[in-house]
Structure formats: structure tokens, C-alpha cells
Amino acid sequence: MRGNSLPELGVGLIGTGFMGRAHALAFHNARTTFDLPFNLKLVALADADAARAEKCAASWGFGRSHGDWQQLVSDPSVNLVAITTPNLLHFPMAMAALEAGKAVYCEKPLAVSLEQAREMQAAALKAGVVTRVGYNYQHNPIIGLAKQMIEGGELGRIVSFQGEFSEDFMGNGLSPWSWRCEEAHAGGALADLGSHLLAMARYLLGDVDAVCADSQTVHPQRPATRGSEEQRAISIDDQTYALLRFANGARGTFGSSWLKHGYKNHLSFEIGGTEGTLSFDQERLNELRLYRAGFPGRDGFQRILAGPAQPGYASFCPAPGHQLGYNELKTLEVHELIQALGGQGSNGTDFAEAMEVERLATAIRMAAKEMRWVSISDI
Amino acid sequence: MRGNSLPELGVGLIGTGFMGRAHALAFHNARTTFDLPFNLKLVALADADAARAEKCAASWGFGRSHGDWQQLVSDPSVNLVAITTPNLLHFPMAMAALEAGKAVYCEKPLAVSLEQAREMQAAALKAGVVTRVGYNYQHNPIIGLAKQMIEGGELGRIVSFQGEFSEDFMGNGLSPWSWRCEEAHAGGALADLGSHLLAMARYLLGDVDAVCADSQTVHPQRPATRGSEEQRAISIDDQTYALLRFANGARGTFGSSWLKHGYKNHLSFEIGGTEGTLSFDQERLNELRLYRAGFPGRDGFQRILAGPAQPGYASFCPAPGHQLGYNELKTLEVHELIQALGGQGSNGTDFAEAMEVERLATAIRMAAKEMRWVSISDI
Amino acid sequence: MRGNSLPELGVGLIGTGFMGRAHALAFHNARTTFDLPFNLKLVALADADAARAEKCAASWGFGRSHGDWQQLVSDPSVNLVAITTPNLLHFPMAMAALEAGKAVYCEKPLAVSLEQAREMQAAALKAGVVTRVGYNYQHNPIIGLAKQMIEGGELGRIVSFQGEFSEDFMGNGLSPWSWRCEEAHAGGALADLGSHLLAMARYLLGDVDAVCADSQTVHPQRPATRGSEEQRAISIDDQTYALLRFANGARGTFGSSWLKHGYKNHLSFEIGGTEGTLSFDQERLNELRLYRAGFPGRDGFQRILAGPAQPGYASFCPAPGHQLGYNELKTLEVHELIQALGGQGSNGTDFAEAMEVERLATAIRMAAKEMRWVSISDI
Amino acid sequence: MRGNSLPELGVGLIGTGFMGRAHALAFHNARTTFDLPFNLKLVALADADAARAEKCAASWGFGRSHGDWQQLVSDPSVNLVAITTPNLLHFPMAMAALEAGKAVYCEKPLAVSLEQAREMQAAALKAGVVTRVGYNYQHNPIIGLAKQMIEGGELGRIVSFQGEFSEDFMGNGLSPWSWRCEEAHAGGALADLGSHLLAMARYLLGDVDAVCADSQTVHPQRPATRGSEEQRAISIDDQTYALLRFANGARGTFGSSWLKHGYKNHLSFEIGGTEGTLSFDQERLNELRLYRAGFPGRDGFQRILAGPAQPGYASFCPAPGHQLGYNELKTLEVHELIQALGGQGSNGTDFAEAMEVERLATAIRMAAKEMRWVSISDI
Questions:
Q1: Which residues from C are below 8 Å from D317, CB to CB?
Q2: Substitution target from C35, C323, C329, C332 for chain D, most D beta carbons within 10 A
Q3: Residue D311 and residue D238 share a domain
């Protein structure tokens, strides 16, 4: 809980869409849920639609609103700039905030090109501030347990990774075009979904050395809008598959698809070691599936439920089986960010790490285009 | 979102434990998430520990704090009193609030005896205010879907109900005594867990006509505290099972246990009709399992994921598969309460309905004690 | 494998329906799969339809055929009489075989009334021969593992049993009448399905002391045949539920229904102890679900796959995960029977035990009819 | 059922190991279960161990036995030669049988090299006889349903395939060397396990055009025997992953591993189309998981149970949910073979198709070795 003697941390949020509201809720809930090292202030909310900014600011508890995000960035009482705008705007906004010496919390993907991402990383390094990118799935307490098991050697030496992030919102040819179909906006199944999985793979297993991949545009044209007769040509990937070689020696497969019917948020993976196997599916985010060798006759995959034994969970629910939701992963992400701002060691995704995710995705894209293995070190 | 021209609704919250914080979060998140018919104000927070009340009020965004709950109840700017204190205190607090003409939002169970519950119901009726009791599991959007299917006849005529609420926190004889082991505090597996299931059964299928039951104290003594050598005699039920006859003709079974190992929040049920079957488990609160007759060769239980098609869900997540958590059910409960305060028809559990739940539990307790069938109408 | 020096065991089989063929296959496969203590001979096959008996005898490898079962029973080269005819005929056939001093292997249920069952048990006792009744689900190797865990104390003291056997072949009012709807033929959900579950409950947990129950005829009339306009009045139970008190102190619930949509062979149970929980579903007959207390942070229900570690499995498959089928449970049942004939201690269901199952079912029937608790000792 | 007027079909079986007995049982059970177009005779059984051959012949119902398989092959009353010996012997035995004009039923893999496989295919073509290779998993009735759905267009256009066959019997470095570790014996995870999955992929989706792959020897040495201190160098693949491009346009991933802990028979796949998705796991061989688009609000993956609606199932069990076992897939395989011998169109794996499986495996091996995409047409 907040005490009066704590330093103030002024938050400025840009964007009032679904993700903007998710950030607003997360900041509030982090304040109510955790003992933070700051007196957190929701200083300002910006949206190009000034009227909407004003209305949301009142409703979400922000002190003031702006129709021009640059005013928010230059506001001296804003210490942290949170960016939830369309992907194309991440670069100019983050660069301006870094230039102004502000900490930056940017939604994923970091940028719409590897070049941008590298420039942003360099700017962050120069600014010497805390940066974070919204790969919120990593903040799931049960993912924390998975990471602890892997790093603690409970699975033995890690030898395999199978990962797939599939959804079905572009499931057939009638699903209409959107900005997600444009490469210039970081669209496509690989960038939109796959990047979450690549971030997760790196979070749990570290660097990837080399990749081979295959991408496909299944529906080369889609209606301009739902039900429209106007068709737009599509060149972005509907599905991308890859082989991965990790620096730790593990081998495996990767998939991302936005047209696999039946899946709504199937960020899933299975990690095999010489002593056990674990698997996870974001569609059941409060569960980890674990097999441990060494229990002959009493062995079998078990379902571990999220619970207070895992850091972060107990702040929301007193007992296992009660379950966290998507929005609470966001609150945990914000908590980690604020801890980092307070100087406490942490494991969030900063701009440097997010750039590595972009680099890996770029390698996959190149491998698919050129139909050959690509070393990450060559990117 | 909140507009300035809306009438004010002043909330007073009593209790700062886990459930107190859950209420505080729920009020805030309801305000941020929904367009409410009120300008919601967190007016006052009360706790017998005045220092804690003050600290929590600051952290949770309440305007003032009280060490004496009666001050909160008599505060004219408080329109709604939320009660999250130990069960014994529900009665005096709710009665005082009703006496003062306030709307009341009381945690479950309504009271520690059927007599109290009846008195509270009568007082609520006389006061003519909105009352609600915290059976939050009913506010799960996917439970709303289940209710809609049942009432819309998708399962045909309902003929069976199997329900079980099991946890394992009292799983062995070393799990220590707590107030939950005292009948005077509405303890025991039936009251503590089973009442949730009875409320759910009534919510979905309506009145129960008659019950037969069996209760057992498996561990007749438990340590006074964890690890203590001092033993306390226990007479409360560790597990209770029952047969249910519903007024709609359905028959079935009921179980509640707090010592079934492996279960953490296993409020589960299966409802069978002449055209289909559905089942649910609170440990996977975002899923409904459904079988519909009439698809020969392509039939099978299917897993329906919570999603925006169900009322309430879309306010938290834009897409299915992203999942709500326990706390969001609380937010939905608060939303329904505020809607009711605004005069919008709703289906929340008011004092009259909560009294019926107590009555049903009382019938089960009597049936078990006297080893005979008991008609609810005789209670 | 069979050696020439082994004593001969002549098998006579009555009935050529599905279950007759299942027996024929089981005898043959037992011979091919196991080292038996006998030189097994398929001596004779009887069916009231003599032509069918002859044809099946040739196809199934029996030496001769009869249109009159009494000839088979009196054939001196027949040592073991297997009965797979309609329930009404179990009594006269088994009594004649016992009278002739033959071992008897009778399909379930043992008889169509408790009186018959008691007479058959007495006759078996007097004859001093080996008898078996076809509760084949108990011969599942993974059920053997469950029994071993329970008896070995791995679950601690057993405190709860929840069992349900549901199917849906009478799922709606258009499912036609059949002999299964007649009490005189041991019809109804309790006798037809529930008796399997009662046998299983006794097999795993032993005697039941007392029961309370509720039975219902959901569809009081059904078409005489599928699609017929002629309706027949039905008085048999479509569903029966009960509370069980076991002699070992465990309490629990029982259900049997033949109109729960979606279930095809849902003989399922969950057994709770002070140290763990196990559950099973016949629809996944090669799996056991187990939770063991005492692994904090690494606990969860696990799925144990049938495998060679369990007696009997390895005779069919060399590795776990390959799975036995329904018919192999029958082969295991026959193997146990032949072992018993060879004097090897075993745990099959003999007439005495099958009579106890009938007695328990009778108690449930009486408890439902009279709406009161019934002690088994009073039956 | 067999009639006297049917032509005789004399079966000669080579090998008396686990697979030999599985064949013997399958021939017998096919005879008892199905109306065959032949009078099936179990003529002869051969094993290099003549005493064992004699003993098994007596036990399994074969007319005579041989210590020399060539005698069996040249026996004029043998019309069909079944080969269940070690992989190295498939080639000489099958070639001799074809040379003698016999139909051949050979266990998988067809041969230990693509060259052998091609020679065998050519010999089969020249002999003009029926040949079959034991990819028994394809004969699962529920796989038949999957094939029917795919070919009938129920999933729309097929766009993706994810397949994995994992087991764990070589799960750690202490699992000893066996012949399965030798390339000359067609060892390794790809050949031993993966070939089943490749055969299944071809069975369901047809030709593969191109592959890229990655193979790894995780444990470069293993004990010579269990517990031995002597170590043997290992160069065979412990795990192999691949990208697949199907001729029908579908893309996907392939995996095979014999060291993924927890899996015992995890031949699994998921097939995505523009209208739906289906998945299967051999560890639950009686189930198909299906999602069909077009049921908004009532959609979700469903579990379809094997049942009499699927060809073949009803011959073993009268009702769904009763389940077939591994050995019954073998019986179904034998049935299909005998139907083919009787001139009835069928879809079994003949030598030509089995050669294509070897060719595909060879392409994967080459792609992994040379780290490049390989077109199947170049093999």
C-alpha cells in the first residue's frame, strides 16, 4: 500500500482503445494490490480524439487529457510513458519519450521493422531509462513456475521445444482485410501472434542460433470489409512454420497461424528435457502440464493449478484453483515494471530483449522467403 | 463511462481482509469498465482496526475511514453498504444498514442461522431497498450462457443434476481448527462450500422440493493451530452428500467436501436434459462442456470457451480464449448490483433468494441429522 | 502355452449373440495369450436356433453344436458351462449346470430377482464348484492398480466414493421399449448399468452398510418399436441415485442413468482418501487419474496410462500407451476363471459375491420405493 | 462366418515374437469376427528356433512348424506369407515369397534401405500379388472417419498438418543401446516411430512435395546393456523435426522423438482446413477431436467417441464408448488384407505405398544431413 513519504511516479498513457483501458486498469490495480515503491499518479491520458481522451480520463481516473500525445510526453510530471497506439506509432512516440528522458512502456511489437527496433534499443541504451514491452504472457505466475523448473534443472537438460500460437479469427477467406494484413504495420500471423511465442521461447530457453521456415498466404485475397464484394490482394503470411535450433542445444518446431479453426488464444508449447516434460496452453492459462521421470508405475502427466505458491498469484487470490484472468497478467506486468523503476532486479522484456525478438522473427521471415537455414548471427 | 450529470452513489465498505480488497477492486473496475447509471463514489472504509482502515482507505481510493462501522452506516453520503466481515457480523451490520435505509451488499453466507436470515429478509422487504449477497460464481458469463441454454430449452426438459463442490484445504487430520469448524460461525463443508453450489443449483434449475442427506465428521479432532499438539474436538461436517428433488422434476445428487485431495475450487455440476447435457467446473471457469443430441456420427461433448458472445465478457477481453479471472466475476457482480440500483431488471441474489439458500442448506442438515427425507416446505 | 500333458478343460457355451461371440473370442484368446493350467477344448455351442448354433460352432471353432442347451449341460466332456443368454434364462441354466456338477460362468446379472440369486448361490455352495459372473470391468489391469493402491494404503484411509454409470441409449422418449424396460427381466438403469458400478464399488471398497435412494421413470411411455405409434407403459427406472455408507466408514453417492446424453459407457468413480484421490472412467479404460498429497508446488491430478507394470496388460501389449479394448477385459476375465479352476487364488466375482451385488441393488430399490434409509443387513 | 464351399487361404507366419503372436491372434480373430471370402487355414509357423516354433504352433493353432522359413515359403499350401522377423530379414523373406508367387504381409518398415524397398516394390509388381505392410494404425475405425471427413470436404480445403510421434523409451542417456540404434537395422526415431506418422500423413493427405528437417543425436553414447558400464557410440537420431509441404497445398510440421518423457505412444496429428480442424492422439485411440466452423456461440472442440457408425467398430463392440484396443487394429488390418485377396477394393498399404513412405523418410534424412530443402521428386 501506498504511503505518503514515497516518491511520486507520474504515468502518462497514450491510446484509449481496448489496450489503453487494459493499461489504465492495470496501473490502478497494481496500486491497490501491491506495496509499490512509488506514490503512483495517473497524470495524463492522450488520444488523437481529444473528446474521447477527456471522457476516458475522467472515467479512468487520470488527472488530465490531451489530444496531442507530444504534450503528454513533454509534461514534466510524467515520468513514465505508456504507449498503446497502432504499431506504426510506437517508433515516433517511444523515440520522443526516450529523448525526453522518460521511462517507456510500449505495447508489442516494439516496432514495424528491425531497423526501427534497433534504433529504439540504441536510444533506450543512451537514455539509460527503464523500458518495457508488453509481452504480458510471460508474467503469468505459472509461467514463472515453468521458468523456475527449467532453470532449476527439474527437467534435466532441455532437448526439445514445440511451440504453436494459433487463432482462427482469419479462419476463412471471408474474414476481411484489416491493418493486420499489411506488412508495413507489422501484420501477419508471424508478427501478430508468432512474436508472442518467440518472446516466450527466448524467455524460457534463451537464444536461438538458427532457423528454417515456411510461410504461406492461404487466402491471397480477402473482402475489404466484412461482407464487402470488394476484394483486396493479400501477401502477408496466414501461417508460418519453422524449425528452431537453440543455443542451449535444444531443437524444435514453431508454428503460428491465424486460420486454425477452433483456437482462440492457443499460445502453446511443450518443452522436453532429459528428466521431464512440461507443456502449457494460454487457453488454460492457470494450468501447467508436467511429467517428471522417476516415478515408475505412478507416473503420468499431471495438471498443476496456479496457486499462491507461485509469485504474484497470491496478490489476487488467496487459494489455488481460483484463477487469474488475462487482465491480471497485465497488472503483473505493470507491477514488474514499477519494481524495475524502483531499482529491483527483474526479468521483464526491455527494448533490448524486444529487439532480439524482432531479430528472430526477421530471421524466420528471411528463411521462409529464401527457403534456407538462416543463422541469427547473420541478421 | 461516468458523466458528471449522473446521480451519485456513495459506497461504504466494511472489512479490509482479502474480500474487502476484492470488493474495493471490483467497485473501481466496474467504474472503469462499464457505463454505470451512477457517479460512483468510494466514500468510506471501515475496519475495527482504525489504523488499518486508514491505510487501506488511502491505498484503495476511499475518501475516509472509520474504526467503528456504525459511523459508516449512519453516514448520509453512504447509499450502499458492503459487508465483508466475518459471518457472525453479517446480521448486526446488515440490520443496521437496512434500518438506516441503505442498500446492502453482503458477502455469503447471508447469516449464521436460518432465523437470522429470515429476519434479514423481512427487514429488507420492509426497507424496500436493493440487497445482494455475494454468490459471485453466478455472474460468470459462461454460467449466463448455461442459464440461457437451459431456459431456452436447448437441453430439452431437464431431468438430472449432479453437483459437487470439493476442496482439500482440510484434507487431512493435521489441517488445523479454524472458525470454519464452528457451526455458530456457519462453518462446515456444507455451509462454507456447499451453499455456493446450492445457490447455483437454484439459480439454474429453481426450487428444490425435498432432500435426503448424509453428513460426516471425518476428523473428530484437529490441532488448535498448524503443528500444535493441542487438539480441539470437531463436530462440524467434513463432507456432506445429498439427494435432491427439484420442483421441475429433475433428480440428482449433491456433494460438498473440504477434504477431497486434489481439488482447489471444484464447484462443478452436470445438468442433463432430454436433448442434451452440460457440465461446468469452476476450476476451469472459462469453459462449458456441452453435448447436444441430434448430430449422429458428429456428436461428442464439446468445450465451449468463454467469449464476447456472452454478456459481460466483452467488457474485459475483446476475444474468446483470453479468460476472465476470479476477481472479474466480482466486478460483474458489482455491475449487476449497480444496474439493479439503477432500476434495471436483473438476476442477482437478493436477501430473499439468499434466505432460500439457507433454508435449503438447513433442510439438508436436518435430513442428515435425522436420516430421513425432508420437504423444503416443512422448513 | 498349452502342453499335451495338461488336463483337459471342456467348455460349453450357451448363446450366440454378441456376448456369445465375445466369450468364444475370449476363450480362444486366453488360450493363445496365456500359459493355462489346462488343455482348453471348445467342446460345444448351444443356441435355441440349431442352424445358427451349427454355423457359429464351425466359425468359432467349437467341436459340436446343440439346439437344446440341456444336451450341452449333460455332455460329460463339458466341464465348464458359459451362459450368455437373456437374463431370464440364467437361473434355470445355471441351476441345471450346478446340479450336473459343472463349473459355471454366467453373464451378469446373476438372476432376475434376489430370491433366484440366493438359490443359485446356495446351489453353487452345495456343488462346491468354481462359479463366476461376468463383471468384466473389474479385470481391467488399471483397475487392478487402483485396488492395489487402495489396499496398500497409498490413498490413506478411504473416506469418500462418488460413482456414476450413465449411458444415453434411452436418452429421449422416442427410444423404444425393449426387454430392458421390464423389471421381470432385470431391466432398468439400476439393474442394467448400476449393478456394474455396485460390483465395482464392492470390489474396491468392500461392503456397504446402508443406502438411501431415489428412482424415477422419466418417460412413462415409449414406442413399442423404433418409430412405432404404438406406445407401451413403462414403470422401470430411467435413473436412480443413491447415498451409500460403506462398512469401512466411507460415504458417498451413486448414480445410474440410461438417458444422460453424451455418455456411452460412463462407468465412472472417484475415491477419496486422507492421502489422495483417484478417479476412473470406463470411456477411457486405459487411464487412471491420481492425485497424491505431499508434493507441495508439484502436485496435481495425473493421468496414469495402462502399461506392462500392471498384471495382465503385458500379455496383450509390450508397452504402455498401446491400450487394451473391451474384449480384452473379457479375455482377462476368462483367464482369471481358468486360473481359479486350476486352484490358483484369485479375486473374481463368484455367485456369492454376485448375490451380494443383487442384495445391494435390492436395498437401493427398496430405499427408493419407501423413501427411507435401508440397512443392507435387513435385506 | 466361414462356409465349407469357400476357397481355402493358407497362411504361413514367420516369427514368434510379440508381433508374431499379434499376427496369429489377428488371423484367428478376423476369422471369428468377420464373414471372410476364404476358408482361412493357419497352415504353418516358422522360427529359427525350431522348438519354439513347434510349441507356438501348437498353442496358436497352426498346423505345422518349421525351423527354416524357406520351407514355409515353398510350401504349396501356403498362399500368404506373413513376416514378423527383425527388419533386416524383411527383404530376403519377402523377395523369396514373391518369387514363389505368394501374397506377402510384411511388418513395417518394409526394408532397411530405400534401395531394398524399391526392389521389393518392383518384385511385387512383377509377381502381381497382393502385398501389405503393417501400418496398422490406419485401420482404426476412427481414422476411417477422419479420412472420410477430409475427403468429403467437411473441413473445407486442407491447409495445415501438425504431426508428432513421441515416446520416451530412450528418454535418458541410461536407456541402453539396442538394434534400434543402428541405421543398418532401420533404427532411429525417424525410422522406428516417424515412419508410422509419415504413412498416416500420406494416408490422410496424400503426397508430400518437399521437406526440410533437423535431426539430432542427443545421447552420443549409451550403455551396451541396461546398467552396463560399457558404452557404445551412437549416431542414430534421437529426435527429428521437419517442415512438410504437401502436394495439396497444405503446410506443416513433423516431429519424431523417442526421448520425450511422458509419452508412450503419442502418434498425434492435427489437420486444419478452411472449415474445421481435427486432431488425434494414438494414446486415446478411440477418440477424435473435431472443431467445425459455423456454429457461432455453440462452437468448441468436441470429442467424438469411436462407435458402430464407423466401419469395422461394430464387429467388435455393439455400442460406442466400449473401445477397441491395439490388437483389434491388427485384426482390422488382417481383415482388409483378406478382403483385398478376395478382390474387394481397399485402401491398405501395399509395397508401392510403403516404398513411398521410405522415400519420404529418406528425403527427410537427406534434408537434415544437408541442412536444405529437398524435393521428394529428386529422391
A1: 325-327
A2: C323
A3: yes
Q: Within this chain, do residues C243 and C298 fall inside the same structural domain, yes or no?
A: yes
- Domain hosting B213: range is 138-378
**Which is higher by pLDDT, C323 or C33?**
C323
Domain boundary among C110, C136, C162: C136
> What single letter denotes the amino acid at residue C313?
Y
Task: Spell out, as residue ranges, where chain B has pLDDT lower than 70.
Answer: 1-4, 345
Element spanning C117, H or E: helix C114-127
Residue D120: enclosing H or E segment and its boundaries?
helix D114-127
Asked whether the beta carbons of residue C251 and residue B373 sit closer than 8 angstroms, the reply is no
Task: Determine the average pLDDT of the residues in C216-227.
Answer: 96
In a domain, B259, yes or no: yes
Q: What is the mean pLDDT of chain A?
A: 96
Decide if the complex's ipTM is over 0.90: yes
Q: Which residue of B has its CA nearest to A263?
A: B321
Shared-domain flag, residues D217 and D363: yes
DSSP assignments along C33-96, one per residue: HS--SSEEEEEEEE-SSHHHHHHHHHHHT-SEEESSHHHHHH-TT--EEEE-S-GGGHHHHHHH
pTM strictly above 0.95: yes
Average pLDDT, rounded, for chain C: 96
State yes or no: pLDDT of A2 exceeds 70. Answer: no
What's the whole-number mean pLDDT along residues D123-137?
97
**β B158-166/B251-257 pair status:** parallel
Number of helices (H), then strands (E), belonging to chain D: the values are 10, 17
Is there a single domain that holds both residue A88 and residue A149?
A: no
What pLDDT is attached to residue D147?
A: 97
Q: Is D174 inside any structural domain?
A: yes
Q: Smallest Cα–Cα separation from D133: which of D122, D120, D115, D142?
A: D120
Q: How much is the CA Rg of chain B, to the nearest whole Å?
A: 21
Question: How high does pLDDT run on average in chain B?
Answer: 96
Q: Which chain A residue has its CA at the smallest distance from B329's CA?
A: A325
For residues B297 and D309, give the distance between their C-alpha atoms in angstroms, rounded to a whole number: 6
The mean per-residue pLDDT over the stretch D293-311 comes to 94
Asked whether the beta carbons of A308 and A322 are under 8 A apart, the reply is: no
In the prediction, which pLDDT does A1 show? 40
Pair B114, B190 in one domain: no
Same domain membership, residue A317 and residue A186: yes
Which residue is associated with the grid cell 501438425?
D162
Task: Judge contact between D236 and D187, C-beta under 8 A.
Answer: yes
- CA-based max dimension of chain C: 66
**How far apart, in whole angstroms, are the C-alpha atoms of residue D146 and residue D256?**
22
* Domain assignment of residue D253, yes or no: yes
Contact D93, D117 (CB under 8 A): no
Structural domain contains residue B242: yes
pLDDT confidence of residue A4: 60
Which residues of C are less than 8 Å from A300 in CB distance? 290, 302-305
Of the partner residues B60, B167, B285, the one whose CB lies closest to the CB of residue A32: B60
Per-residue model confidence (pLDDT) at position D4: 60
List residues of chain B with CB under 8 Å from any CB of chain A. Answer: 1-2, 4, 18, 21, 24-25, 28-29, 31-33, 55-56, 58-61, 167, 169, 263-266, 282-285, 305, 307, 316-328
% of chain D residues with pLDDT over 90? 95
Show the 3-state SS of A34-99.
CCCCCEEEEEEEECCCHHHHHHHHHHHCCCEEECCHHHHHHCCCCCEEEECCCHHHHHHHHHHHHH
Q: Is the pLDDT of residue D45 over 90?
A: yes
Q: Is A151 exposed, middle or buried (0-12, 13-18, 19+ CB in 10 A)?
A: exposed
| pLDDT band, very low/low/confident/very high, at A69 (cuts 50, 70, 90) | very high
DSSP SS3 for A148 = helix
Cβ-Cβ contacts under 8 Å, B307 against chain A: 264
Given C95, C118, C136, which residue is the final one in a domain? C136
For chain A, the domain total comes to 2
